[in-house]
Amino acid sequence: MKPIIFTGDSFTFGEGLELHDDMYRSMIKDAVLYMNSLEKQGKHLDFDDKGYWWHKYSDFSENIVPAGLLRYELSYAAIVSNNFKTLGFRKFHNGGNQTNAVNFINQCTAKFNHEKFSIAIINLTSPNRDSHCLLQDYFREKYSIILEIDKSGQDFISHLHELFLKWSEKYDKYVKFSSNPTLFHKLWEFEKPLTIESADKLQNDFNTWDDFRIGIATLYYEEYFRAYVDKIKIPYYFIEPWNKFDSEILDLIDTTTINNEIKNKIIPLYKGNKIIKMYDEDKKNNNFYLHNLYDWSDNYHPSKYGHQIIADSIIKFINENNLQIK
């Protein structure tokens, strides 16, 4: 049986699955509760200092058995590979963006010859993670805007999203940014300047908040396909974005390229006989996500039960579409 390549971000990596080990979970819980107690005593904690985040504990967790082992064995990559009795190539590093995900596929096929592999499965993540790279030339040439990342790690386009959203809350129809420079400068909180002239050009093209978010996402996915996905040498399929905002925008995009090459290749997620959206499973009395099982963890990654649902859906898709894993 030919190997399958699994790639994406921390969902594919299996972040947090190690919490299913009783001994490890007990130790981590004590550490998390201790950190939380420091905040109550007045110590400032960053967002990722609270709860369990892999990168905050990886210095020692990677040397603890069975943390790393569980993270692989319980992941959907392992479950699917074992079902088809084949190897599963999974990106070793945690996190990532869409371009890194495709680069991993190309690294595998270049190293081992693409004919050695059957298919690739990509879990889609937020376009905001690499849109500043993919759309850099477009924004510079058309709007004289240099896309950058701020000190907190937030990208320029995210700030543009906030600007359009806050402006549309003030004006429910098209009103030029230059009509109210004081409000414009108040709403633009990014450390790098944005001229009103450039903002007006953007608004002239995208008009409203909805037009902007859908338009930018369309530009992103078109470029993502052209620059990366179109170069993949083996059949590929996607798992939907886990983020509600990104998933809903992708649903609203309607172009031939994106429909044929991305949306039509998304593997439906099934819970029983019902198709579900991943973000809808994030609710109380549900065990899809870790933080619903262990509320102290604040970890918004799938539990072993969530990974099983994803794996079963992939297996169902492969079988029903007679994909050749051999």
Quickly count the domains. Answer: 2
Radius of gyration equals 22 Å
Whole-number mean pLDDT: 91
The chain-level structural class is alpha/beta
Extract low-pLDDT stretches: none
Proportion of residues in helical segments: 40-55%
Strand order of the largest sheet: 2-1-3-4
Give me the strand/helix succession.
EHHHHHEHEHHHHHHEHHEEHH
Q: How many individual β-strands?
A: 6
Task: Throw out a few tags for this protein.
alpha/beta, 6% strand, 2 domains, two-stranded antiparallel sheet, 49% helix, four-stranded parallel beta sheet, single chain, 326 residues, 6 strands
Can you walk through the features of this model?
With 326 residues, this protein is an alpha/beta fold. The protein folds into two domains: 4-124 and 266-320, no CATH class; 131-216. It has helices at 10-13, 22-40, 54-61, 67-73, 76-83, 98-112, 131-134, 136-143, 156-170, 181-187, 196-206, 209-227, 244-252, 256-261, 290-293, 304-320; strands at 4-7, 88-90, 120-123, 236-239, 269-271, 274-276. It has a four-stranded parallel beta sheet with strand order 2-1-3-4, with helices on both faces. A hairpin with a 2-residue loop joins β5 (269-271) and β6 (274-276). α5 (76-83) crosses α16 (304-320). It starts with a strand and ends in a 6-residue tail after the last helix. The model has no long low-confidence stretch (mean pLDDT 91).
Note the topology.
Blueprint: E1 4-7, H1 10-13, H2 22-40, H3 54-61, H4 67-73, H5 76-83, E2 88-90, H6 98-112, E3 120-123, H7 131-134, H8 136-143, H9 156-170, H10 181-187, H11 196-206, H12 209-227, E4 236-239, H13 244-252, H14 256-261, E5 269-271, E6 274-276, H15 290-293, H16 304-320
Parallel strand pairs: 1-2, 1-3, 3-4
Antiparallel strand pairs: 5-6
